[in-house]
Amino acid sequence: MGAGTNGCWIGTYERDKQQVFTDAATAGATVFDVGANVGFYTLLAARCVGKDGFVHCFEPFPENLRTLRQHLELNPCQNVTVHEAAVSDRSGTYRFASGDCPETGKLDEHGDVEVQVIQIDEETSSGRIPYPDVVKIDVEGAESKVLLGARETLLSRQPILLVAIHGSSMLREVQAIIKDFRYEVEVESSKAPGMYEIYARPQKHRPSTMSPLTTDVQRR
User: Fold this and answer.
1) Computed from CA positions of residues 155, 41, 82, 187, in that sequence, does the dihedral angle turn out positive or negative?
2) Distance between CA atoms of 96 and 78, rounded to whole angstroms?
3) What's the chain's Rg over C-alpha atoms?
4) H or E stretch including 108?
5) CA triple 106-7-162, angle to 5 deg
6) pLDDT for residue 112
7) Which residues contact 14 (CB under 8 A, 6 or more apart)?
8) Which of 11, 31, 57, 173 is most buried, most CB within 10 Å of its CB?
9) pTM of the entire structure?
10) pLDDT tier at 217, thresholds 50, 70, 90
11) By three-state DSSP, how is residue 177 classified?
């Protein structure tokens, strides 16, 4: 309690997204949780993929990392690796704004903390991390940079993507990027204004459980 909304520990938090996520994160899969925050989806993925699967979570903010590690200790997970870094289109260091609450922190040139930044393609091509089967992204407005930094990984391995989108302009940008990577894209409006959820899969995968595109989203 206190690490997120009460719905997180009750089990009602983002129930529809949980269902889509658990359908994708099957036993033995490798899951990337990009923007892990305090580990809600990291823990869910760890349970879903089982002892033969792997979860790599990426979180740069020190306060969130402390809580994330506490959650991993409370829920022993032998299949989770924590990467103390943000993910973007290039590696190095960058400023990070902590936000009004832990969930809203983001990369920002005027941020109050300096954090490590990695690029997925560099990490996978070097062998430092394995190629993913599922990638969940929730990075408060840096979604396109994460995807562009994973271009070769996505084109060659075609993992399932679940992306939280912040704003209609970012929605259009991300849709264009993912379609260029040969994915089918589904979009669902979130209850929060200006928020969307993208589910993207290569054609070989079965349909998701998300509802089809709404007319409102198509107009946007």
Assistant:
1) positive
2) 29
3) 16
4) none
5) 50
6) 85
7) 7
8) 31
9) 0.88
10) very low
11) helix
Q: Which two tokens stand for residue 149?
A: 């930094």
Give the pair of three-digit tokens for residue 100.
Answer: 């009004």
Query: For the chain, how far is it from start to end, CA to CA, in angstroms?
Result: 37
Exposure of 60 in the CB half-sphere (CA atoms within 13 A): 29
- Assess whether pLDDT exceeds 60 at residue 215: no
pLDDT in tens, 157-209: 999 999 999 889 999 999 999 999 999 999 998 777 788 999 999 976 545 54
- Tracing tokens 């129930």 back to the chain, one arrives at 15
Report the percentage of the chain scoring pLDDT > 70. 89
Local structure of 190: helix, strand or coil: coil
Task: Kindly provide the residue ranges of all beta strands, DSSP E only, lying in 2-159, ordered along the sequence.
Answer: 30-34, 54-58, 80-83, 86-87, 92-97, 106-107, 113-118, 134-137
Q: What's the CA gap between 219 and 33, in Å, rounded?
A: 30
